[in-house]
Here is the input.
Amino acid sequence: MPYAEIKNRLLRENDLSDEVRAFEKDSAPVWHIRRHVLPPKFDPNPINPERVLTGVRLGFDLLRAWSEDRRSVVAIHVSEPFLIVETEWFSGSPNAAPPEVYIFLAKEIELFKPLVHDEALPREFAAGAHGLDDRVAGTTTRFLAGEDEPDSGSWLFAVDQSAEDSKEI
Here is the structure.
């Protein structure tokens, strides 16, 4: 299936306004939404490099869509989303979790406590080495180190709001 079709399907199936409407009807006061951009593939073989790149590109597409769409939500509190990509995904490790986008919804400001990951530190991401220069531009990048190895862990990407805010002026 061509990338554009996969992207359009992902964005259609993960429309933030649909999520907000469902949340408003639900009795829960908060929702933590973590959406994988591809289905997990349980396979003992390394992940195909094309699938790795497709997953990351889709993650950035959903991240940017939710970041833009959240600006029009006024009835509830919506966090800035962030994209999570495990180092195992980038290396194509068998059974690695696909990239996912996280966003938090709350009905009351007192309950607005999105996941923050304060322990994640700013770190330069080698976008060019992964062919992602165009995707990473305009984002902030942090790294959440794993417990076992210093280079294992999760990359966290968010839309750089200072860049976004300057576009509106």
User: Anything to note?
Assistant: The chain has one domain: 3-168.
